[in-house]
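Could you show me some protein's one-letter sequence and the numbers that encode its backbone in two labelled lines?

___
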Amino acid sequence: MNYIVNIVLILCVTLASSSTSAQNWALPHISVANVRTNPSHSSELSTQVLMGTPLRVHDKISDGWYFVEMPDGYWGYVIDNSLTVTDDEYMKKWRDAPRVIVISNREVKAYSGEKDNVTVSDLVQGDIMEGSIKSGKKRTEVTLPDGRTAWVDTKDVMSLDKWSRQNPDASLVVSTAAAVMGAPYLWGGLSSKGMDCSGLTKMCYYRNGLILMRDASQQALTGTEVNENDLKKGDLLFFGNMVTRRVNHVGIYIGDGIFIESAGRVRLNRLDAVDNFFFARRILGGGESKGITKVINHPWYFNQEN
């Protein structure tokens, strides 16, 4: 009798475990979803994730919060009404599906029809949706992660496959940063709606198809260190506490001793006007390395060939 009971219990646990593990992926279905340090709206905003960013679900907490892992290895809690939770089978198909990514530096819209202007969702640079761009069409039909269909202006999107195969370009890093000049500083922010210092650098390199680590202190350990006298456009400049020697700020060098940073707002600053500059790191030119990943090679975005 006990043997039979044990078998039943094992089967129940196995089935429950299989059911839970099957729903182990999520895609944000709003333009920018907030990630918290704890499962509460009052908890600190640690970062954000963009529409269509693949997330690994590790646990579902009471009150509708999911504990997720992001493609850069960052962890946090996202409320369920921002996510479409799915399984391995769906994600395999999603990775092979034709998709588009928003490349516009400004906030744009997804509309309910090819010719109308009824908004289905707002969109920011980096948002990913299923869809194929057709030559000559002013708008492209897309499917949002939660299954909603919409239309976006074709000029504002690019094929995800084409985008992910682009050659990283320092000029594109700089122009992306320049395009959001004046945007407000937001602790944990990662989009043109508002960003912190490392959110700005991460966003600008993501426009080049590269995934950087999330925090300035993490980014400071990536790439190649360069001498202050050998700075090039796109290099990351790191600043910190002169007493503790800890990195707590990052900016993007644009030439002639000037850099762009998010400090109060996205703005210009001069190296000779600051006294807490530590060192610079070069992200471009060295290929992939620890903490620098091409989207095309990330198995969460594309099924990798064996």
Residues 1-21 have pLDDT under 50 and may be disordered. Residues 2-22 form the longest helix (21 residues). The longest strand covers residues 247-255. The two ends are 48 Å apart (CA to CA).
